[in-house]
Amino acid sequence: MMIYLNKDHNIKDKYEDSDWIKTPLVIFLNNTYDLLVKKEVMKEYGFEEIEKEVKKICNLGEMIARENIEKGHSMGIEQGQKLERITLIKNMTESLQCSMQRAMGVLKLTADEIKDVEEYFKS
Question: Which domain of life is it from (predicted)?
């Protein structure tokens, strides 16, 4: 059986076949519904209430979302810092008429940062 987790699924909509299992699974695995909604659906469909497990799944979904937001934030900061270094080096080479190597030395870039800058200017 394959289940597509439709975030727009309305709990009142019933599946023509196998609703007894599909609706609870879709609601249980969907991270757009909170714990209270999931508990109500489980009761409605006659599943034993397993609050700890439902809570774990809810918390897992929230944790994954939080981790992805933090990862995206970190990646954005890193990209911003790379662009700032490149802009600084470009400005220094044009305004002060110094070499790219000299500008990177003045900024005390790490080996990885130097590699990124050199790759940018090669392209």
Answer: Bacteria
